[in-house]
């Protein structure tokens, strides 16, 4: 199991829900590549409304014609590992926004009940982790 505590880097990729890579969702390709690269974790968040460089507002409201909702893919790992992954994002992202933020990981525990390195406690089943 990967242990990650202390200083880390968060990469957030803002794309559209309908963006694709080889006929499958782009966010799926990003998550699968992050997993294959051995990164600590990746999550996809679907927005309910937003706009980007095109200035078109995309919304989930019932009467809206837009179905291309905003999506954010968030990946957290050590700075070195995230920066090594960035060339893959360069290959995949033709439209969108990629941001990097320094952050601090205070707890990172899987669901297998292994001990949390920063506190010496055992993970609790049912709690969500990154």
Brief overview, please?
This protein is of the alpha+beta class and 130 residues long. 19% of the residues lie in helices and 32% in strands.
- Tally of DSSP helical segments: 2
Structural class: alpha+beta
> How far apart are the termini?
13 Å
H-E string: EEEHEEEEHE
- Show unreliable segments: 114-130
- On the 0 to 100 scale, the average pLDDT is 82
Strand order of the largest sheet: 4-7-1-8
- Would you report the number of β strands? 8
Kindly provide the radius of gyration, computed on alpha-carbon positions and rounded to a whole number of angstroms. 17 Å
Characterize the largest beta sheet: strand count, sense, and whether it forms a barrel: 4 strands, antiparallel
Q: What is the helical fraction, as a range of percent?
A: 10-25%
Global shape: globular
Oligomer: single chain
Portion in beta strands: 25-35%
What does this protein structure show overall?
This protein is an alpha+beta fold and 130 residues long. The protein has two helices and eight strands. It has helices at residues 26-36, 79-92; strands at residues 6-16, 20-21, 24-25, 42-46, 49-50, 58-59, 70-77, 97-105. The strands form three sheets. Strands 4-7-1-8 form a four-stranded antiparallel β-sheet, covered by helices on one side. Strands 2-3 form a two-stranded antiparallel ribbon. The protein has a two-stranded antiparallel sheet with strand order 5-6. Helix 1 (26-36) packs antiparallel against helix 2. It is globular, with a radius of gyration of 17 Å. Residues 114-130 have low confidence and may be disordered.
């Amino acid at each position: 199991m990967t242990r990650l505590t202390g200083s880390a880097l968060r990469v957030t990729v803002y794309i559209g829900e309908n963006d694709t890579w080889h006929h499958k969702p782009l966010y799926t390709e990003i998550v699968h590549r992050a997993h294959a690269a051995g990164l600590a974790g990746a999550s996809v968040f679907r927005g309910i409304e937003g706009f980007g460089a095109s200035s078109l507002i995309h919304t989930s409201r019932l009467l809206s014609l837009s179905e291309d909702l905003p999506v954010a893919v968030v990946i957290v790992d050590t700075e070195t590992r995230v920066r090594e992954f960035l060339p893959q994002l360069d290959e995949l992202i033709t439209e969108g926004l990629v941001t990097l933020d320094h952050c601090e990981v205070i707890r990172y525990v899987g669901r297998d009940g292994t001990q949390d390195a920063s506190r010496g406690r055992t993970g609790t089943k049912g709690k969500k982790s990154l």
